[in-house]
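Input/output pair, single chain:
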Amino acid sequence: MDTALFSPSSLFADSDGNSSADEAEKDANHNFVERKHQFPSMELIIREFSFHQLNANLLWPGTFAFAEWLVQNRQWIERRRLLELGSGTGALAIFLHKSFKFDITTSDYDDPDIEENIAHNCMVNGVTPILPHIRHSWGDDFPTHNPDWDLVIASDILLYVKQYSNLIKTLSFLLNSYKPKAREEVPYTAGENDSCLLPRPAFLMSWRRRIGKEDESLFFDGCDNAGLEVQHLGSRVYCIATREMTKKEGNF
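Output:
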C-alpha cells in the first residue's frame, strides 16, 4: 500500500487540547509512545507507534471531529453492528464502545502489530474482552464471506489515492454482500429528531486531512461507477450506500 507523505508532528492537535506531545511517555523498548487524548466526555490513554510505514501509528484530526459528530447524531447509529475500516490505534472504536456499548469490530491492514496494539489499547482503557478485529488489506478477498455489519465507518482514510479502487472494491463487497445477523432484532422506532435514518447497510465516512479536489472527485466518481450512492450529511461527513438500497429505503 502506498504511504502518504506528511509530517507526523502536524497531526497533533495541541492548540485545541485534543492531545499533547508533552504528555508522551515512551515504553521500555522505545517502539511506542503513550498519550492521553480527550474525546467527548472521556479521556483515553492510547499507545501509538513511534513510526509505522502505513500511518497506523497516530490519531488523526478526523478521529476527534468524527467522534463529536457521532455523539451529536447518536440516534442515526443506534442498534447498529459497526465495522471500522482503517482503525489504526483503535481509539475511535474504543471510545464508541465505552460510551454507548456499541457492537463494533475493528479492521486494518493485514499486520499483526496493528492488531496487537489495538488489543493493548482496549485493555489499558478497560475494554475487556477486547474488541474483535479483522486483518484485511483493501481489495483483497474479505476474510468474512457473509458480512453482517449494517454500518461501516472510517475517518481520514482518503490519503491513499492509488488505493481508491481497492477501497471501493472492499466497500462494494461489504455493502452488496450484507447478510442480517440470524437473530431476532428489536425494531427501531424513529424519534422526532430523526430527520434521516441511514440505509442498512451503509458506509459512514469523515475526514479532516486535506486532499485535492481532483483526488476527492476521483474517489466519488469511483463510487458512482461501482453503483454506490454518495450523500453529504454536513461537517465533511458522507454516507455511502448501494444505489439499489437507497432507492428501496428512500433515505436520500
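The beta strands are 25-26, 32-39, 42-49, 81-84, 103-108, 133-135, 151-155, 202-206, 228-234, 237-242. The longest helix spans residues 112-124.
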